[in-house]
């Protein structure tokens, strides 16, 4: 399922939910749906606690980032920034050493 493209996914969803009423008119996403997706419980046999008459949408908007994915992205970014800071510190130390050597050399002249 992870390697499906958008067309295949839409086709399968239409097969499963084709007999049901069309997508809800509201743009608000069902909190139970979001919770199920975050906890990786959403699937073929998941049923909304609000029932089949749930007035909220059971679809993620385009570009939506799950909290678990956001946490991973933030951790990666923090690790990258930590490496960058370490590199900056090392460069500053090296530059400081070069300046010190130049001063020492100029004093001897």
Uncertain residue ranges: none
Order of helices and strands: HHH
Largest sheet: none
- Helix/strand/pairing class, anyone? mainly alpha
Radius of gyration: 27 Å
Helix count, DSSP H or I runs of 4 or more residues: 3
Give the strand content. under 5%
Shape: rod-shaped
Counting DSSP E segments of at least 2 residues, the number of strands comes to: 0
Roughly how many Å apart are the termini?
74 Å
Mean pLDDT: 81
- Into which percent range does the helicity of residues fall? 55-70%
Structure commentary:
There is one protein chain. By secondary structure, this protein is an all-alpha fold. The protein is rod-shaped, with a radius of gyration of 27 Å. It starts with 5 loop residues before the first helix and ends with a helix.
Q: In summary, what is this structure?
A:
By secondary structure, this protein is mainly alpha-helical. The chain contains three helices and no strands.
């Amino acid at each position: 399922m992870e390697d499906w493209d958008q067309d295949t996914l839409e086709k399968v969803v239409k097969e499963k939910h084709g007999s049901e009423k069309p997508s809800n008119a509201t743009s608000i996403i069902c909190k139970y749906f979001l919770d199920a997706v975050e906890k990786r419980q959403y699937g073929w046999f998941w049923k909304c606690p609000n029932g089949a008459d749930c007035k909220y949408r059971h679809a993620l908007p385009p570009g939506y980032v799950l909290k678990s994915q956001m946490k991973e992205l933030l951790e990666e970014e923090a690790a990258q920034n930590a490496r960058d800071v370490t590199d900056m510190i090392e460069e500053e130390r090296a530059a400081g050493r070069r300046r010190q050597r130049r001063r020492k050399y100029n004093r001897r002249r």
